[in-house]
């Protein structure tokens, strides 16, 4: 394993913005902490990371990020427990996925030590920024962008790895209504859908806007071939409960291998819930909604945690899901957040102290 | 049509870099001129463009371009004729396509006058940068990036439209060998393949690198469903000549509607060449290569103009294309470049004086 040759340098900001922040009323991802981590890839190697005051980035107009979308990112959270200790959730999984994304986007892989030491050093400095308000956390955004230049569609020769943090409240307010997509797609077979590549998200904006105009919050993506299978919901993996079985689609090159998804699957099994990982057809979900066997659906992802779905639209018809007093969504969300916030035993070994 | 309320402001650079440039040995897209055009979209409107010295761009770390790949671009060229006059080729088509891309990427459309007046004002200032060396031209890169901020996967509220220019030689040196792709894909049905969206290009880098390692220059993209149809070649549309018929695939939501492609189709018809716009299967091309009816293949695009293909690989077998003394590629390239460089009559009305 490649390790850093020098210690991370820290340049502290002269003043703090923390007292301007209303921690009781945090939006999602729009307030940033005092510092950020920056690590440059030049001359064929990742250089020693540095922590500097949060500040603008300056790039050449010909930087490849602007032209060819060569960028990847991760999304993580830091949680504070009642004793004031800070925790991460399965951070090594984020590092592994960052490198999977890097390979597909022809970006040089980042050594594990750069990621983990960079992250923990930054978080130790920003610890006071981790909210204590229930349901809030410090959203962490590690990302890599192509800073190398040239109007030539080929990989850049220079990159920047950056970690920025934003104290955040909840991603969605309340339950969401979703539209099952019949026309647009988010990813191709053999494409980059399984990577957290920037371009995957911009492509979702327009179809999502159309859905919002029709009164939905989010699109449920289906396969691009026949729009036959339920695949993902924006930046969330998707689960359906039919009767008492919890079902989610298998990962593939079209679907992001979500850390929340796989944790939820493990917790559900631990809870004695029947789970199935298999293709879910749109028809099956519509049929189950009609005959009342579709008990619930929810999205799962780091940002939104578990986001219950109130109903869905398909081919101009709206289907409402029942209000359950004992939903899997509520039960699983409690289990996972109890682990994340160190309120319960972590038999899986997922918590990681900062 | 929305028009600018104020004239474009010009801030001239104090010194010029033009004397450092070796115009006889230009690479592609790696030397930039003295000025660039910048136009900001803020508060719901495109502001008056300004021309400023070519310089770095400064953005917040949370700018959406870095996280969600919200960017689009165009590629154009300015040509100088023997009398020293400067010409563009069908620039209104580039503007139209920029706005088609903008719609799909949820970017506000740019009024035509901003594009055309911005472009011509900049080019008048940079006229000396248009190379006179045969085969060289001034490559022009108009692009829009999301400068608005937020770690929330939704469209930005601010954008930058920029035009930068690079005096350039040829994109490929000589004929190219291509690999017909069997695994990876560049675009989905219902996706963003028809748009010049940044993310489409980064997704091509890794499969193209794999092809380069195997000794090819470029990938021929096939449909993501069964890899059955020949679709595009990197940043070029693709043509095949079987017997004496020139064939290219139809445009679709997976394929960029190339300006070179459609111009070549018109010129070919004018030349009395039989043309067909229809799906081309991989099998058909392999079969035609085997029985000798595949006379030639070439890529067509602004950057590479017409790029003849020397041979292709498919399922581990290499197929060579014959050396023709009278190829369509040579004939059509001469016709189109004669129009572009004002060396011949332009019966189509495609030339546009700067
Ligand atoms: C497309 C997509 N699917 C699913 C997820 C959920 O993944 P995770 O649970 O690792 O956050 C995300 C968000 O990270 C995503 O962007
Ligand atoms: C994917 C793709 N296909 C085809 C083309 C050719 O289009 P045009 O002839 O308009 O340059 C380009 C380049 O612009 C491209 O990026």
Automatic annotation (TrEMBL), chains A, B:
Catalytic activity: L-isoleucine + 2-oxoglutarate = (S)-3-methyl-2-oxopentanoate + L-glutamate; L-leucine + 2-oxoglutarate = 4-methyl-2-oxopentanoate + L-glutamate; L-valine + 2-oxoglutarate = 3-methyl-2-oxobutanoate + L-glutamate
SUPFAM superfamilies cross-referenced by the UniProt entry: D-aminoacid aminotransferase-like PLP-dependent enzymes
Cofactor: pyridoxal 5'-phosphate
Catalytic class of the enzyme: transferase
Domain of life of the source: Bacteria
Entry keywords, A to Z: Amino-acid biosynthesis, Aminotransferase, Branched-chain amino acid biosynthesis, Pyridoxal phosphate, Transferase
CDD domains: BCAT_beta_family
InterPro entries: Aminotrans_IV (IPR001544), Aminotrans_IV_CS (IPR018300), Aminotransferase-like (IPR036038), B_amino_transII (IPR005786), BCAT-like_C (IPR043132), BCAT-like_N (IPR043131), BCAT_family (IPR033939)
EC number: 2.6.1.42
Classification via Pfam families: Aminotran_4
Pathway per the UniProt entry: Amino-acid biosynthesis; L-leucine biosynthesis; L-leucine from 3-methyl-2-oxobutanoate: step 4/4; Amino-acid biosynthesis; L-isoleucine biosynthesis; L-isoleucine from 2-oxobutanoate: step 4/4; Amino-acid biosynthesis; L-valine biosynthesis; L-valine from pyruvate: step 4/4
Annotated positions of the N6-(pyridoxal phosphate)lysine modification: 196
GO molecular function: L-isoleucine-2-oxoglutarate transaminase activity; L-leucine-2-oxoglutarate transaminase activity; L-valine-2-oxoglutarate transaminase activity
GO terms for biological process, alphabetical: isoleucine biosynthetic process; L-leucine biosynthetic process; L-valine biosynthetic process
Family statement drawn from the similarity comment of this UniProt entry: Belongs to the class-IV pyridoxal-phosphate-dependent aminotransferase family.
Function statement: Acts on leucine, isoleucine and valine.
Protein name (database record): Branched-chain-amino-acid aminotransferase
Protein's organism: Flagellimonas maritima
């Amino acid at each position: 394993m490649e390790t850093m040759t020098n210690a991370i340098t820290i340049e502290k900001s002269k003043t703090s913005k923390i007292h301007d922040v209303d921690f009781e009323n945090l939006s999602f991802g729009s307030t940033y902490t005092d510092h950020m981590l920056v690590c440059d890839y030049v001359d064929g190697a990742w250089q020693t990371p540095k922590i500097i005051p949060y500040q603008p980035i300056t790039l050449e107009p010909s930087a490849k990020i602007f032209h060819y979308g060569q960028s990847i990112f991760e999304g993580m959270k830091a949680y504070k427990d009642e004793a004031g200790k800070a925790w991460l959730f399965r951070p090594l999984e984020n590092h592994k996925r960052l490198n999977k994304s890097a390979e597909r986007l022809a970006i040089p892989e980042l050594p594990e030590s750069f990621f983990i030491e960079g992250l923990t050093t930054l978080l130790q400095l920003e610890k006071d920024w981790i909210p204590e308000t229930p349901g809030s956390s410090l959203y962490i955004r590690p990302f890599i962008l192509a800073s190398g230049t040239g109007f030539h569609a080929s990989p850049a020769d220079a990159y920047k790895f950056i970690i920025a943090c934003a104290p955040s409240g909840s991603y969605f307010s309340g339950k969401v209504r979703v539209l099952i997509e019949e026309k647009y797609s988010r990813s191709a077979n053999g494409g980059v859908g399984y990577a957290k590549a920037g371009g995957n998200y911009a492509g979702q904006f327009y179809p999502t806007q159309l859905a919002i105009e029709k009164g939905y919050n989010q699109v449920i993506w289906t396969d691009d071939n026949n729009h036959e299978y339920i695949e993902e919901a924006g930046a969330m993996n998707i689960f359906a409960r039919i009767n008492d079985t919890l079902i989610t689609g298998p990962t593939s090159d079209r679907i992001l291998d979500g850390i929340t998804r796989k944790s939820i699957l493990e917790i559900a099994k631990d809870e004695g819930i029947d789970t199935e990982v298999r293709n879910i057809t749109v028809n099956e979900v519509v049929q189950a909604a009609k005959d009342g066997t579709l008990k619930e659906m929810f999205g799962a992802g780091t940002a939104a945690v578990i986001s219950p779905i109130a109903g869905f639209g398909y081919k101009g018809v709206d289907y409402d899901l029942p209000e359950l007093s004992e939903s899997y969504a509520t039960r699983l969300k409690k289990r996972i957040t109890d682990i994340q916030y160190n309120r319960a035993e972590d038999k899986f070994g997922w918590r990681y102290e900062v």
